[in-house]
Each structure stands twice: as structure tokens, then as C-alpha cells.
Amino acid sequence: MQSDIKRLSLILLFAPFALWIALLIILPHMGMVVLSLREKVAPRVYEFGFGNYIDFINEPIYWNTLLRTGSMSILVTFLALLIGFPIAYYIAKIAGKRSRGALFLLCLIPLWVSDLIRAFGWILLLRETGVISSFLTDIGLIKQPIEFLYNDITVIIGLVYTVILFMIVPLVSTLDGMDNAMIEAGYNLGGNGFTVLRRIIVPYAMPGIVSGCIVVFMMTAGSYLTPILLGGKNSSWFTEQIYDQFITRFNWESGAAFGFLLLAFTSVVVWIGLRLTGQTLANTVAKS
Amino acid sequence: MASSTKNRAFLLGYRAYIAAFFIFLAAPLVAAGSFAFNDSLFPALPWQGFTLDWFFNDSEPKLGMFHDRRLLRGLYYSGVIGVMVALLSVFVGTTNAFLFVRGNFPAKNFFYILMILPLVIPGVILGISILVMASNIANGVEDRFNLELEFLRPGILLVVFGQFSFVTTITSLVITARLKKFDTSLEEAALNLGASRAQVLRTVTLPFLRPAMIAAGIVAFLVSFENFNTTLFLVGSESPLTITMYDRMAKVGSTPVLNAVSFFLIVGSGLLALISVVIQRDPKS
Fold it and tell me: Which ipTM was obtained for this model?
């Protein structure tokens, strides 16, 4: 009787989970893979085959875009970690009690502001008639207005800006749980600042670092607005290719193949990252 | 002595870096928000004086956001979608929390990883895969039974499903973390005092979870509201606000009314985020 009730409640709890994962995650992804293996031979006539993937390999623009998206995303992730780690460390370990809470709030409050608004803000600052350009001409530093938009550096700055809070917030939570005595012990044993950082702080913060890197990498590789708006029409971001195939050319088969390639590529990068750092998905992303 | 001045210089440099970072963090948001109050037809310098026209004026060329029909409709659809996503994902997030904290079943770790997975799938891919599946079903039904299933075509329901598919991971993680902190002896005490299981759930366990559920709901609403990538593929004629804004930006170019919307959204999402932080921080709500 008792065990029947337990089993029934387990089934009832499992049902929403199973429906969610099966109907909205697993089945759609399988459907996407199946669709990507369909070739259009005539209107409304399809054949099974790898044609969409072969097209991808044969067209350098496609795989160049994927490689470019991947490498720029890795760079953005690395920069976000490099810039964000000192901020997180300051908030968690150096700031006084009162300013710690205030600084952390300053990171949490703009966390959910849309990419669109962030990119819009950058456009207003950086375009030829924008704030920075007209300020520099006003003080006489430059003679003619400068266009700061539509180049790779701006895209990278914009992407780092969009994702960096998702790096800092998990890092603060991880570093917050670290006992200060560990750092002091490191110094007392004769370590200098760099040794303590490398041998004590970074290993301790590893789950937070990996978690932040995974989320940031995925957000960057999957982002659409920031590269398009700050990089212009020629930003060559892979999500733009997917959008192009789906919406503009109405070629869903090849769009599905591109989607699967993006998913496979980013998953492989994350898997390698987890392997290299000896972490798992469950003890990193789930904790943040 | 030398080392202490060196340390002080280092700390000073460190503080300057922190300050520079927060200026970097604020600059685009300040730019996006503040041009809403510039009395000019373009969101650019020079400053022409303060105005609230971009919020409240009711005629062209300075049509304020609260008189702009399409922006208001976008705001309305975003709100409807956000509330639906928040309710659904908090419900499933709560059952998931009980499932993974209290339940014992084979391959639990595997299922737990499945639960986290949607968070690390790019939003574009969630969008296209759900679009493909819904269209497949709708086309199949149409071919076989000659029945048009309107709700499986791009529209509000698909947008809700698309956002729900990954927002649920966030709500599940937030509520799970709270449920793990629950002291089960409280439930046992209530049971010993003669309460039924349902009563215990209603009067002891759920009130304990309430702050996490509210905070998770707010975060779900915010994520839904700002989402673009997944929504883009699933949207029908009822465009939520981010899509409407993007269209306006692409077609009309930047006008200060977009700054007004930005200001509204920055302040609104900031306040909601603040509320969700405060609710979760308070140990007893």
C-alpha cells in the first residue's frame, strides 16, 4: 500500500519531466536530424541522403563561417573569463561587506536586459554620428567622424559585453564559498600572489570557471543579434546562415543540417573543455 | 614598508579597474536609456533639451511609445507569453525538484543531465527543431485527415513552448537548490501531529519553497521577455516586443521611441531582477 502510493507519486512527478524532455527536446532534435538527411529531388519529392552535408563541405563560405563563429566564440569566452575573473574575485573576497552586496547587485540587475537593447546602446555610442565619434570631434582629437561599427573588434567587444555577467555571477558564488584561511595559508607557506592564484584559488574555483565558460560559449556561438547589429550584413555568423536558409530561402532541409552542425560543433567544444578540466556537466552548470 | 606601498598601489589600480568595468557595464545602457529624453528626432548628440514626448506624445512625428499601437501590442504579447512561460515552467520546475530531490529511480544521474541539457543548447536550434516538429505534425494531419491544426503553426503557443523548453531548466535548478535545504524533520513532525500528506505539502513544504518559486517565476518571465533567438523562428503574426523592436530598427532605423522602450525595459527588468534577488535572500518569507 505504502509502496504503491510512493510509486504512483513518482510516476506523477516523472510525467511532466518526461513530457517536457521527450516532446520539446528529444523528438524535435531527432526530427531535425531526419529532416537534414532529406534531399529535395523535385518539388514535394524527397530522397534520403547526405546531400545537405555534402553541400556544406563543398561550399567554403559555409564551413568558414562555422569555424569563424567557433573560434571567435572561444576568444570571447576567454576574454570574458580574463576580464570577469578579477571582478568576481574583488566582489567575493576583497570588497568590504557592504560594498560586496551592492556590487553584486549591480551585476545582477542588468543581467536580464535584452541583447537587442545592449546592441542598440552600443550602436548609439559607436556609430559615425554616435556619442563617442562626435565627442572626439568636439574636443578636436579627430577631424572627421569615425565609424566604429561593422568590424570584428566591435563585434567581439559587444559579445563580451553581452555575456560577461553570465561569467561573473557563477564565479562570485563559487569564490564566495571559499574559506579565506586557504588563501592566507598559501601566503604563510611562502607562496607569492601568482602561486596562490594558480595553485589554490583557480583549482578551487574550477567548477565555477567551467560553468561560466560553458554558458558563455554557448550563448556566444548561438547569438544572433549582437553580431548582426554590430557587425553589419557581412558579420558572417553561423546563426545568420541558419536563419537565411530557414526564413529567406525556405530551404528547411539545409537549415536543419546547419542547425545540427552547430549543435554538434558546440557540443564537441564543450565536451573537450570538460575533459581537459576534469569536470562534469552535473557539477558545473547545475550548480550555478 | 616598500611592499606595503606596492600593495597600496596595486589595490588602487585594482579599484580603478573595477570602476572602469562598471562604467563599461553601464555606458551602453545609459546611452540606450537617456536618449529617450532628448527633444530631437534622432537618438544622437547634441542634446536638445529634456522631453517626455517619446513616452506620452500622441501624434507624429514624435509618437510616444504609449501611443504607438504596434509597440503596445508587442508589449502585450510579450506579457502574455511571459506569464504563460513563467506559470508553466514554475509548475514543471517544482515537480522536477521533488522528482530529483525526493525520488529514487534508476538512471537518475542520466535524467538529471537530460534536465540540464536544454540550457546549453543554442536557442536558435531549439527554435528550429520545435518549428520543424510542429510543422511535420500539422502537415501530416492535414494530408491524412484534411484537418488544419492552426495552433501548431507559428504563433503564440509555439513561442511559449519554445521558451518553456529551456526556461524550465532554470526554474528547476532554482527550486531544486531550495528544496535541498529543506529539513525533512519538519514534515515528519507535521505527520506525527496527524496531518495528511496533502496537508503537509500545502502547509509546510510549499510555503518553504515559495520564495524560490516566486524568484524562479520572475526570472522565467524576464528570460521569456528578452528572448529573441528561439522566438524568431516560432513567431506568427502576434509579434512580442523584442521582435517588433528589431523590425522597427531594421526598417525605420533607430528612432528615440526605441530609446523610450529601452528605458522602460531596463528599468522594468532591473526592478523585477531586484525583487527576485531580495525574495530569495530573505530566509523566511
Answer: 0.88
